[in-house]
Predict the 3D structure of the following.
Amino acid sequence: MNIKLNSIVTAMAASFVILAVTADDATARGFGGGGGGARGGGGGASSFQGGGFSRGGAAASGSFSSGAARYGSEGGGSSAASVASSRSQTAQTASTNRAATQQGWQSTSTANQAQRQDSSAENQQQRQATSSQNQDQRQNYSNQNVQTRQQTAQQYHGTYPPHAGYYPPPPPAGYYNNNNNNNWDDGEVAAVAVGSAAIGAVAGYAAGQSNASESQSAPATTVVYTAPPPASGGLPCTPNTSVVNGVTYYQCGTSWYTQAYGSGGVIYMPVPAPY
Amino acid sequence: MIKTLQKGTRNALCVAILATLAGCAEHQTVTQPDTWASPATVPQAAVPEPTEAEAKDLLLRMANYLAQAQRFTVAMTDNYDTLQASGQKLEFSEKRNLTVSRPNGLRVELEESHGEKHLFLYDGKDMTVFNPSQNVYAQTAKAGGIDEAVVYLLKDLHMRLPLAALLLSRFPAEIESRTQALDYVEKTAIHGVPCHHLAGRTETVDYQVWIQEGTQPLPLRIVLTYKNAEGQPQFRAQFFDWNLSPIVSDSKFVFTPPAESRKIAFAAQVTSIAPAAIATPEAIGGKQ
């Protein structure tokens, strides 16, 4: 009897240990159920041949500044109007706080600390106040964006370039006309999916000189195919290939593409028919 | 019987507790970042830690040291968070070898975690990005030196070059103008190298930097937190093998197209080259 009871207790204890370890491992590995395994749809990209994970986003830039907030605060299409309004106010407040803090950073340490504490408290209140509003607005914005994207996708094959208002919203006028060159590195890396043949969306901009105002021309939003090893692997068909003025074009039906080097690597970009 | 049962229970529970503790200890070992200092290498906090003004001085010493270095090579590994459409946050990593020779030479060799490689070259006249696996390259003329080229690369060509600001000769002014607050976190060590841990805040990015203590105030690690971006993703970089007196020839920065390589455009330039390409077709190929 004693032996039996001891065996049971020992077995229970051993089970507890095993369960504790395996549960921990399972959590660590993401096998805890419910969550993981959502493949595809990299960064808003729709899967074309199974898709992959997005390598893009704010952190991929590795920059000391980010345009993540500025896009929202400075406009970017009619669908972003409500968000822009709200974030603009936040930006103004932040700017005021920033000025105070900046001044503080250049003065004494004690004064700095006091200012930061004030600034921090104010910011926290403002963040809490705007957070719920922003969440509602983001949801609206998101729904509107989905509709816009669907419309744009439908219209894309008929017209080029696609209409403005596509995701991500284009930068506002003057966005790149920053004479003091601050935040020159705040571009977010386009969400191009890992692996071949995923359709993503990035904004294509006309290139220009750093200080040239022409570079503010309205960006053409494009659909981009990540480059596969073989030329045809990332395109929706086995293309006809043309070389025009030294540039290789790939034709799928009425759509034309060319390869280009983007922030995420070599990609296929839709272009107007070369002839 | 009760006595025996209690003894047996006690033994079993002891086994369980010891095993659990062993598991916990093992788990801690696994999750502890290997970059942190071991207790033996952490400098003792016998002296008062630097003030904020001294933190600023440390930061600018580092920035000036880099900006004034005429040549250097360094290896960098980084990893960064990406927020997927599903809401899941994933981490990707990459390795870089950087060679800087002011004012005109810049070479960046990149290998991404999925094996894709890229080479960036700037020789004072042209900047080139080459993808060896597809044997294609994009090239554009840009005079003016590294500062101009790097800004053009990011601002106009929308290419990616993490921590590009560190390469600029005006890095001290860049970091100073962007920093709104700076704190000295602690004196610590990375891989046994004593360093200062600073934490700064810009308008859009919170950053941490670990600066080597002593006469060579080099950055050993940098962490960027994108506080305004959804999910507050981070970029984390570690620097290895700093060499401030490398022997580099100018040819290291000049691109010679490999055989059969094909020139393509920068994506940012496609919208401007496409209309120009509407011309008489030189050749029309068949299906590949």
Summary: The two ends of chain A are 93 Å apart (CA to CA). Residues 33 and 93 of chain A are 43 Å apart (CA to CA).
